[in-house]
Write a structure and sequence with these properties.
53% of the residues lie in helices and 10% in strands. It contains 5 helices and 7 strands. A 3-stranded antiparallel sheet has the order 2-1-5, with no helix packed on it. The chain is rod-shaped, with a radius of gyration of 33 Å. It has 3 domains: 68 residues, no CATH class; 42 residues; 71 residues, no CATH class. It is mostly helical.
Length: 188
């Protein structure tokens, strides 16, 4: 059966039992039952033209379009590549996220408030040695203090205080406060 593409008017050879037909010229997909039928049966020896110029009364621009059977093949190949990449990368990403979440949960559940206080005092002494007289902003000092309560002995807390970037410290402090509340601690 030969139908007319609704976008460019090109003749499309399709099966009468097909539900959808894709234009080999412009790539538009359309329903076979609702398309304009040119011939109920494909004439013997009929071949699609190698080039089609849409008439002016169709939506497509009136520029020559080439017959391209590879559009569908390209889309299938791209789809297979995307699926392959997603199925390879997604499990790895999920594994990494689960491992990080497990490490955070393990460090959160293993810390005790009394141990935290002792470690905080020891780390505070180290802080003065590491900073070496330079003054970190007050917000970075608060963020580092809260960090030490949540993760005792973490060198990252000292680094946070030494950096002195107030906007980063403020964002970190908010996150540390929420984490401390979740553990039943207070960063005030």
């Amino acid at each position: 059966m030969i139908i007319e593409c609704k976008n460019c008017g090109a003749p499309l050879d399709t099966q009468a039992t097909a539900t959808l037909a894709r234009c080999a010229y412009c790539g538009t997909t359309q329903r076979v039952k609702t398309a304009t039928t040119q011939f109920q049966q494909t004439p013997r020896g009929w071949q699609a033209p190698a080039q089609w110029t849409p008439p002016s009364h169709f939506r497509a621009r009136s520029v020559p379009l080439r017959l391209d059977h590879t559009k569908t093949l390209r889309k299938v190949v791209i789809f297979i590549i995307v699926i392959s990449v997603v199925t390879t990368v997604l499990p790895i990403a999920i594994f990494v996220i689960v491992m990080i979440a497990g490490a955070v949960a393990a460090s959160s559940s293993s810390s005790r408030p009394t141990r935290t206080k002792r470690t905080t005092k020891k780390t505070t002494k180290k802080k003065h040695k590491l900073v070496g007289g330079s003054q970190a902003s007050e917000i970075c000092t608060q963020a580092a203090k809260c960090c030490r309560q949540i993760t005792p002995g973490s060198a990252g807390c000292d680094t946070l205080e030494q950096a002195g970037h107030e906007s980063a410290c403020r964002a970190s402090l908010d996150g540390f406060k929420r984490a401390a509340e979740a553990q039943g601690l207070s960063c005030e």
